[in-house]
């Protein structure tokens, strides 16, 4: 069975091979063996665009050489890159690069092609996951309800996962979809006691703290701020994650990226985030967000 990294590589290799030929989401899905839902989500996570928009962007980028190095007509270049009409190509070109193909051919400016495609680097993590290069985001503050517990150093790897599952079941039983959203949040922080840590696990809500207390749940808040967000894309639903896999992701972030970053991470806590609406039985995104203070 192909690793997840191999499948993702196959997606982008397929795109590059079809710059001059039609390619639909359904055909690409069948060719690489990922569901259309899965394929749409992973390409969007890696490029900032759905598959078909990414393919169009790659065609536009490839057409730059034709405009500079040949005297072919714009209409012929448009047709060669699967645009039905010359005007469709011109409009798409201007949206992506800020000028028309004719102006580009005449003025020959330097264009930031990689920036236009918003491609993000990624690396394999085990056989069933990839980690996408981190990005700095501004997260608006929000409220959540769930369960909270302090764990000692000897709690075991599955302690946090068990609490998350308990919170999931408690919210489903007590609040249901009236208050709770699909967005899970875990807050991992220092407890103040040597060798122990606190975990608050729950879902974003519009309910008040009193509503949560009546349901026997803890209410907690996530402050607005700047975070460095890491995405771990996996070939399974997040509920199927094993603790050993999660710790591997943690080591990559906190033993690899954080010590070498130019940013400052002054806060002794971080967020785990999963939006169940963007997950399926064979696909999930686990985000780890660390509050950051950027250096000048």
Account of the 3D structure:
With 296 residues, this protein is α+β, with helices and mostly antiparallel strands. The chain folds into two domains: 4-119, Arc Repressor Mutant, subunit A; 131-291, Regulatory factor, effector binding domain (Multidrug-efflux Transporter 1 Regulator Bmrr, Chain A, Alpha-Beta Barrel). Helix content is 43%, strand content 25%. The chain has helices at residues 4-17, 25-32, 36-47, 51-69, 74-80, 86-97, 101-107, 113-117, 159-174, 176-179, 209-214, 243-260, and strands spanning 122-124, 129-139, 142-151, 180-190, 197-205, 218-222, 225-234, 269-275, 284-291. It has a nine-stranded antiparallel beta sheet, sandwiched between helices. A hairpin with a 6-residue loop joins strand 4 (180-190) and strand 5 (197-205). Helix 5 crosses helix 6 (86-97). The N and C termini lie far apart (47 Å). The mean pLDDT is 89.
* Number of DSSP E strands: 9
- Residue stretches low in confidence (pLDDT < 50, at least 5 long) are none
For the residues shown, what is the average pLDDT? 89
Radius of gyration: 23 Å
CATH fold-level label of the largest domain: Multidrug-efflux Transporter 1 Regulator Bmrr, Chain A
Secondary-structure element series? HHHHHHHHEEEHHEEHEEHEE
- What is the overall shape? elongated
Main CATH class of the largest domain? Alpha Beta
Summarize the main sheet: 9 strands, antiparallel
CATH superfamily of the largest domain: Regulatory factor, effector binding domain
Topology:
Blueprint: H1 4-17, H2 25-32, H3 36-47, H4 51-69, H5 74-80, H6 86-97, H7 101-107, H8 113-117, E1 122-124, E2 129-139, E3 142-151, H9 159-174, H10 176-179, E4 180-190, E5 197-205, H11 209-214, E6 218-222, E7 225-234, H12 243-260, E8 269-275, E9 284-291
Antiparallel strand pairs: 1-2, 2-7, 3-5, 3-6, 4-5, 4-8, 7-9, 8-9
Helix pairs in contact: 5-6
